[in-house]
Amino acid sequence: MCGIVGGVAERNISNILIEGLKRLEYRGYDSAGLALINGGHVLRERRVGKVANLEQAVIEAELTGSLGIAHTRWATHGKPTENNAHPHISGNVAVVHNGIIENFQELKDDLEALGYVFTSQTDTEVVAHLVNDALKSTPSLLEAVKQVVPQLKGAYALGIIHTDHPDELITVREGSPLVIGVGIGENFISSDQLALLPITNRFIYLEEGDIARLTRETIEVFVDGQLVNRPVKELDATVSNASKGEYKHYMLKEIYEQPEAIQQTISQALNGNALREDFLAQAEQDFASIQQVQIIACGTSYHAGMIAKYWFEQLIDVPCQVEIASEYRYRTPVIVNNTLYICISQSGETADTLAALRDTQKRAAAKALNICTMAICNVATSSMVRETHHSLLTLAGPEIGVASTKAFTTQLAALMLLILKIGQVKQSIAEKTVTEIIAELWHTPKVILDTLQHNPAILHLSELFVEKNHCLFLGRGTQFPIALEGALKLKEISYIHAEGYAAGELKHGPLALVDNEMPVVILAPKDDMLDKLKSNMEEVQARGGELFVFADEHSGIKTKERQHVVHIPSISAVLAPIVYSIPVQLLSYHVAVLRGTDVDQPRNLAKSVTVE
Ligand code: G6P
């Protein structure tokens, strides 16, 4: 998704801006650009494709400057071309923008009537012209931006500079993330703090509606025209630990980090085989009054929610619904009293999930309903964590690969901890069951480590996939969402068309697709559904389908003609979805590598989807 980096300093910052953009590359983008103010001119370079192309252009043009803005663009309005890449310029104003200006067409019509000429198809360009126009009535860049902001509808973040203001960077946060990186005698902005970590660990997190003016020495934040105080927060050094190390791709590194990530996530909540007394203690009263749960999420996080639904209902007898945020937010769902709303999100910034949360809060308040909101999130400083009553962090560390892996399995671990906690508060789970599940949770990192030992066998299976165009993933119970997740992973990074199905649905449609050319991946832990799943496997084989089975080592399922089996170490049925995530991640990873795709930044996708 689009990324913003900007800064005002005494030194040349072109290389800092480029480095910042490189650190945002993982989010997904299709073009990049940079503008610097130097000697009363705006110096700009833009390139389609990788930041490296832009870097080369900046070096060749010898662009330098101590005030500048830079951007990676993920096309929403207009194709990924150089003209559509940011920054956009009008007169002496340059602008970078994340998000969407919804009323841009009306604004564009008005500006064209005033004689402004548009050189791009973007919504962003209206902002540059509007600021330029507002400067006719005020010499102050800040005042001009303050005049423009109320005219813009939508969710956006902006960085704005002007040749007559060589020590001034104006920034706006209105529905799209933006942080200020506080330096010594220099200050920076970015849509993601990760971009600024080489320069500072001190950040100001802007809030929705904030307009800020940065100079080398000062940072002023305004809300409705009034100066406000936003605290500077110092970031833990471990957050910055994001490099590929010995691994070929971030995704592979992140797959291998799962034992540790899960251990970290559960350690915050557990003391031996019990939940810590202080774990979510501040939420106990809310948990006591809830009667049902509504989970809202997107993508892989939605699959984590689907698994939690099984757990909530089976383990602690609490009704649970789960829905994709982009649907939930627009279908006017009934807000029910005494409901716990859980947003699951790796980034905590996903536009649809945030909008669904905000809408739910607003509608509950309007009806004076008692609801409680909670974020399960990997980013402590994210909007979602800040805007919910309670939060539970997944301690996975930064996840860079677009395809989510360790964020997903830590979400599952966190959800299980939450369920145990709610079950205890509501006394709807036996203490013995809590103790058993906690013992299994502690054991999970080891089982994952042992599962990772099967990597060579999974690589071997993936070689049989390279030429395939379609694939089915089947599972039952909590393995149904893992089937969906396996299919999502495979299509995201290898571009093979894949479908996940509940194996019981096979006869209701997908069986018609099965032939010699259709690989079918089966998830077969040792649980109550194993015999039924074996019947489903027979149905596939009888139609000439080729089976790729991840099966419990004690399942009795063996390799035979057109049936390839990788045995997975035994794990309790309840936690099996965490462990069975690993082979489907590895399978997709290897297939993608063999097909030569861009594993960490697959085409057309973004890590953090901060626009609708
Ligand atoms: C994007 C990412 C997915 C992620 C989804 C939801 O589509 O590519 O990996 O699952 O967004 O993101 P979130 O940050 O809310 O978990």
TrEMBL record:
GO terms for biological process: amino sugar biosynthetic process; carbohydrate metabolic process; fructose 6-phosphate metabolic process; protein N-linked glycosylation; UDP-N-acetylglucosamine metabolic process. Keywords: Aminotransferase, Cytoplasm, Glutamine amidotransferase, Repeat, Transferase. It comes from the Bacteria. GO terms for molecular function: carbohydrate derivative binding; glutamine-fructose-6-phosphate transaminase (isomerizing) activity. It is an enzyme of class 2 (transferase). The active site is at residues 2, 607. It holds the Pfam family SIS. Its EC number is 2.6.1.16. Residues 283-428, 461-602 form the SIS domain. Catalyzes the first step in hexosamine metabolism, converting fructose-6P into glucosamine-6P using glutamine as a nitrogen source. This is Glutamine--fructose-6-phosphate aminotransferase [isomerizing]. NCBIfam families: glmS, PRK00331.1. GO terms for cellular component: cytosol. Homodimer. It comes from Acinetobacter indicus CIP 110367. It is found in: Cytoplasm. Residues 2-217 form the Glutamine amidotransferase type-2 domain. The keyword Cell division does not apply. InterPro entries: GATase_2_dom, GFAT, GFAT_N, GlmS/AgaS_SIS, GlmS/FrlB_SIS, Ntn_hydrolases_N, SIS_dom, SIS_dom_sf.
